[in-house]
Each structure stands twice: as structure tokens, then as C-alpha cells.
User: Which sequence fits this backbone?
């Protein structure tokens, strides 16, 4: 009987605790009163974020699902990652990390945004200064590689006072670049190291060739094993210039 009485007593204690906890969790002091937002809010105001996310949160301070709250914030355009914590007794603290845009991505007329980690994200491209962003494109899953190639090659073209405006990796694995002058450069196939080597060879001599004719570069083809072909604006070669005005103009050697 003594054991039974002790057991029964513990049952009553547990029931009382459960009821007390349930009553406590329903008290107004634990109703969510404030969502404190910190971090990157360049593209979303704290007020607009609260208005979008608050209706999606269920439960009070003790019952709200932090993972669901985090996911709700990460559905907002420009928000890459959210970290959510409770702040006793009735607040949530949210630290936001926005996408840092690095380029436009995709074919002409269907641009999306690419962040600094090579991740494509959905947001309104009109919210950024699109004319200052390079245009990159490539097959699915190749965005990080194309961004890496852009960073590597743009630094090289800057040495010849040229800006790299567009870079494309075709489905066949060939690279094509366009400079801010409008000149198109066929870079060919290969690894980034091979592209780097061909581009350096091209940059080291192209100014000498173009200055010889006093003309700007229109296009270049670097797919030759030991040199490259150039087309200069307004320069033609051959016996009949009118018939050959679109022919490549000069092949550079090592």
C-alpha cells in the first residue's frame, strides 16, 4: 500500500505539473510581442519583413517553431539565410544575411541574379544597377564555374584597359567573351588554366597589332594552338577588299 500511495502521489504531481505548464504557456506574457530584425536589410525593411512573416508564425514564444520561422524569412526575396532565436519572455531575434549580387545570369530577356557565391536567386533585377553588372550565362549547374572564370579573366582584361561585360559557357563547353567596347572574343574549350594562358598570350601582343593599323578590335579568335586571329574595325586584307571585308585580319604568333 505504501508503494502504491507513493506512486499515486507521483502521478498527481506529474498531472499538476502538466496542467501548470499548459496554463503557463497560455498566459499573455508569452504571446509574441516583437520580432527584432538585425543584419542585412538593404532590400527589405524590418516593417515589411514583419508584415510578410508574422502571419505565417504559429504559437506563442514557447511553442513557435524556430525552423519554420527561419524558412518563412528565407522565402522573402533577397534573403539568403536567416538565424532565429528566442528572447525571453515574448520576443524573437532574427539576423538576416542577404544575397550579395555579383552578376546577371541567363540569356538576353530572361535575366536572373547571381550572388557572390555563384548561387542563382530570384529577385527583381530592376532593383540593382543592371548596367554595372556583367552578364553571365552557361548550362545548368555551371554558374559557380562561370563566375570564377569571369573573376579570373576580367582581371586580365583590365590590364589592357578593357572591361569584360559578358561571358558565356556554351552547351558544347566553349567560352565566349564580350568586352565593353563590343569586341567579341572566342576563347575556345578547356580548363580555366588553359583559358588563362590563351588570354595572357592574346593580351601581351594585341595592342601592338591593333595600333599598327590605328584601329579598334572588333573580334578575336583564340582557338588556334599557336596564336590567334583578329578582326579590326575598318581594316580589310586581300586583293579584293570589298569581297574580303569580313575576313579575319591577322594571326598573331607566340
Assistant:
Amino acid at each position: 500500500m505504501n508503494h502504491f500511495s507513493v506512486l499515486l502521489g507521483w502521478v498527481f504531481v506529474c498531472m499538476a505539473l502538466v496542467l501548470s505548464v499548459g496554463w503557463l504557456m497560455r498566459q499573455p506574457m508569452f504571446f509574441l510581442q516583437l520580432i527584432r530584425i538585425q543584419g542585412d536589410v538593404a532590400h527589405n525593411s524590418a516593417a515589411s519583413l514583419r508584415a510578410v512573416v508574422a502571419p505565417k508564425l504559429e504559437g506563442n514564444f514557447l511553442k513557435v517553431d524556430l525552423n519554420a520561422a527561419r524558412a518563412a524569412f528565407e522565402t522573402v526575396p533577397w534573403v539568403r539565410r536567416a538565424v532565429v532565436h528566442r528572447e525571453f519572455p515574448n520576443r524573437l531575434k532574427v539576423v538576416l544575411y542577404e544575397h550579395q549580387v555579383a552578376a546577371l545570369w541567363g540569356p538576353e530577356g530572361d535575366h536572373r541574379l547571381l550572388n557572390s557565391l555563384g548561387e542563382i536567386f530570384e529577385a527583381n533585377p530592376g532593383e540593382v544597377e543592371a548596367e554595372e553588372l556583367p552578364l553571365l550565362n552557361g548550362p545548368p549547374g555551371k554558374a559557380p564555374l562561370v563566375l570564377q572564370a569571369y573573376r579570373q579573366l576580367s582581371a586580365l582584361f583590365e590590364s589592357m584597359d578593357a572591361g569584360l561585360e559578358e561571358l558565356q559557357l556554351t552547351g558544347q563547353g566553349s567560352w565566349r567573351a564580350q568586352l565593353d567596347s563590343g569586341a567579341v572574343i572566342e576563347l575556345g574549350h578547356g580548363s580555366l588554366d588553359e583559358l588563362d594562358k590563351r588570354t595572357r598570350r592574346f593580351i601581351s601582343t594585341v595592342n601592338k597589332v591593333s595600333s599598327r593599323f590605328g584601329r579598334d578590335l572588333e573580334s578575336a579568335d583564340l582557338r588556334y594552338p599557336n596564336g590567334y586571329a583578329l578582326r579590326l574595325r575598318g581594316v580589310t586584307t586581300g586583293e579584293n577588299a570589298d569581297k574580303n571585308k569580313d575576313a579575319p585580319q591577322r594571326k598573331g604568333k607566340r
